[in-house]
Amino acid sequence: MAAAGGQSTTPKLESPLGLSGGAEEDEQTVRHRALTATRSRSVRDPTNPQGWPPLADKLERAFCCLSTFDPELRESCLTVDEDNVVVSLKQHYRQGTIWLHGSLPTAGGGHNWRGGWRELNVQLTSPFERRGERLTGGLSVAFASAPPQSAIDMPPVHCVPNACGFTLQFLPKLLSLWGPNPGSGAQTATEPQNRRASPAAAAAAEAGAAQATAQSASVKHCAIHVCHGDLLRVLVSPSGWVDVVGRLASSEDGQWRSIVGWQTPLSMDRLFVGLTLRHTTAVTLRRVYHQGDSVPGQA
């Protein structure tokens, strides 16, 4: 995509280690690298250069919080459990949309991590699959500055104006980013380092972006294999950088791995989350770290 003065603003790919995918970089990629470098110097844990908050799995509940679904902002084709933390589609429905109650909590800083992150942590399952089996259907996750006013005529989350997020399609094993400038500075764990788009691909991307709306421009894709029982962390930094991290059955060692990260226009304003489920997908909300005080075992 061409900017004023003839300079290219086509997003450049980065490796998960922050290595540049080309000689030129867009402004958002440079800003994210600078922020990551600052975290690497200030955060004492070398295994967490991004400064992500700790996992809540082994922490006392006093240091964590659990978001819930809003039963008033769900389509009738969806069912939620009595605690409003598990949602699934009723049989014979193809898709349904639900929003979380309130905004995502903001994590305080700690000894080995930086404050200001907002996190969505979910487990993906299906009532028809067993652990380790591939899921069918899909899931869209949206971040927006405000939720819908009511569930009447509520659109799928990827159609919400000015929202940004991603869509998982389980059978094609595909994760797609969407929203305003979704591919900016994108770095994935599935792409080779230092790969630059070919001239033909760059021209096609520019032509497509000229015709697309801000909601669908420059869509970015990466491969992902999601199975029953897999876990996802979606972390939004104070600068609007989004990291999707997964503990997937397809991973050989079963460890948390970075899947994709990209720059968004999100800020430190309140963030509301909507989900659109497809076919047999079920989503369970999980606890996230919230308190800003020292956490036992993390010092």
UniProtKB/TrEMBL annotation:
Composition bias (Polar residues) maps to 1-12, 37-50
Residue numbers spanned by region Disordered: 1-54
The source's domain of life comes to: Eukaryota
The name under which this protein is listed is Uncharacterized protein
Q: Which organism is it from?
A: Polarella glacialis (Dinoflagellate)
